[in-house]
Amino acid sequence: MPRPLQAVIDMGALASNHALAKRLAPGARAFATIKADAYGHGTRRVERALAGADGFAVCEIEQAAALRTLARSARRDRPVLLLEGCFCTRDLLLCALEGITTVVHDIAQVEMLERTRLDPAVDVFVKMNSGMNRLGFAPSRFGAAVERLQALPAVRSITLMTHFASADEPEGIAAQMAVFEAHAAAFPGLPRSLANSAALLRYPESHADWVRPGLMLYGISPFADRDAASLGLQPAMRLESEVIAVQALVAGDRVGYAGTFRADGPMRVGIVACGYADGYPRHAPTGTPVLVDGQRSRLLGRVSMDMLAVDLTALPAAGVGCPVVLWGGALPAEEVATAAGTIAYELLCALAPRVPVREQAAGEGSMPGAEAD
Ligand SMILES: *Cc1c(COP(=O)(O)O)cnc(C)c1O
User: Fold this and answer.
1) Per-residue pLDDT tens for 235-294?
2) 294 — alpha (psi -120 to 50), left (phi > 0) or beta?
3) What is residue 365's predicted lDDT score, i.e. its pLDDT?
4) Which atom of ligand 1 lies closest to the CA of 222?
5) Does 136 contact ligand 1 (Cβ within 6 A)?
6) Ligand 1 centroid to 196 CA: how many Å?
7) Spans of all domains in the chain
8) 11-222 and 237-360 agree in CATH topology
9) Which of 129, 223, 330, 343 gives a 20 to 30 Å CA spacing to 167?
10) pLDDT tens digits, residue range 169-179?
11) pLDDT digits (tens, 9 = 90+) for 60-104
């Protein structure tokens, strides 16, 4: 029998979350953001689940080229956006050859376009740093960069782009929107792309021509004050395993490396086949929620490489072979992430390659609450 740990990817949930993104931004096209192996869900799998997507956004040019090849073979000529742009002339030539849409965020990338003869010409998204101070042209330099790109035969189309730092925070997007609009106003004819998941969900004024949802496609809420279910999202990944051993403790007994958890009375402890080498956060403390046999329980002591311990004291019927959900289904990854001092993005992306993935077809096992058992 294989080790009982597996990640279950709900193909119907992916499609449903994508449909919700499209409904919420009816006037925009959407780049489904599938960087980082589709936030741990598998690029090819998500590409299949979202067969009707308008386009895909990724970070690596090899992945962008593979997605363009797939699109061509399926006769769906949809764009693929390279989010950090080209790192060298070779990348740029590949963009032209494969029809990859590339971000242009600094002057070196403009110069690369000026130096390189491209046939066919490329579609570019020129990025403004409207306040996040990560990638993009300073607002005062943005117009000049756009004009240089407009003059180039190597450039076929230009879309104006920015990215929000705090769309999921109370601060919102108003200040960055104002900067962007003020400096994009000189180019009224050019399409625009601003919104990540949080902005798509909360700020319709940011939708413009292309939205770029990522996290919401995977059924995770970007907001601390709204859960995914209340937004109409369905979690797409469930990480599940089983209890593989049970220990009976008496007062004073300790659990795991360094014995950081100490029993203050008789307890039953279940050992679960899942550890930090599987992508479970090692810093999750005692008390982090875990579902055992559909019931809420808690993590005990330190997470090991291949195992972790859970409290079975209140679950007398739970024993070896009992199903465990680490996140997903009735246990939102957001909650586990918060307990572990991180964000759901990091949990999903950290899913280790050694964890087998099972695809759950749309409709299969999707009875409400069925995930909880
Ligand atoms: C990752 C990313 C997104 C998607 O963000 P989510 O918060 O996951 O929706 C959109 N745009 C850019 C530029 C990104 O890097």
Assistant:
1) 999 999 999 999 999 999 999 999 999 999 999 999 999 999 999 999 999 999 999 999
2) left
3) 61
4) 7
5) no
6) 5
7) 11-222, 237-360
8) no
9) 330
10) 999 999 999 99
11) 999 999 999 998 888 888 999 999 999 999 999 999 999 999 999
Cα separation, 240 vs 328, in Å, equals 8
* Class of domain 237-360 as given by CATH: mainly beta
Q: Are 116 and 125 in contact (CB under 8 A)?
A: no
Mention every residue, 6+ apart, whose C-beta is less than 8 A from residue 310.
243, 269, 270, 272, 290, 292, 297, 298, 299, 300, 324
Give me the pLDDT at residue 368, please.
43
pLDDT of residue 15 exceeding 90, the answer is yes
Q: Are the C-beta atoms of residues 234 and 228 closer than 8 Å to each other?
A: yes
Q: What is the DSSP string of 90-133?
A: HHHHHHHHHT-EEEE-SHHHHHHHHH---SS-EEEEEEB-SSS-
Q: What is the whole-number distance in angstroms between the Cα of residue 309 and the centre of ligand 1?
A: 34
pLDDT digits over 95-128, tens only?
999 999 999 999 999 999 999 999 999 999 999 9
* CATH number belonging to the domain at 11-222, selected among 3.20.20.10, 3.40.50.620, 3.40.50.2000, 3.30.360.10: 3.20.20.10
Helix (H) or strand (E) holding 63: helix 61-73
Contact predicate 206/194, CB 8 Å:
yes
Beta-strand (E) ranges in 265-360? 267-272, 289-292, 295-300, 308-311, 323-327, 357-360
Q: Is the CB of 16 under 6 A from ligand 1?
A: no
Could you give the 3-state DSSP secondary structure of residue 262?
strand
Q: What is the DSSP letter of 151?
A: T
Token pair belonging to 244: 């593989």
CA-nearest residue, atom 4 of ligand 1: 214
Tens digit of each residue's pLDDT (9 = 90 or more) over 178-193: 999 999 999 999 999 9
Catalytic residues: 35, 257
Residue 165 CA to ligand 1 center (angstroms) comes to 10
Structure tokens at 120: 């066919």
Amino acid, res. 184: A
Mean pLDDT over residues 28-42, rounded?
Answer: 98
Going by C-alpha positions, the residue among 234, 200, 199 that lies closest to residue 220 is: 234
Ligand 1 pocket, residue 101 CB under 6 Å: no
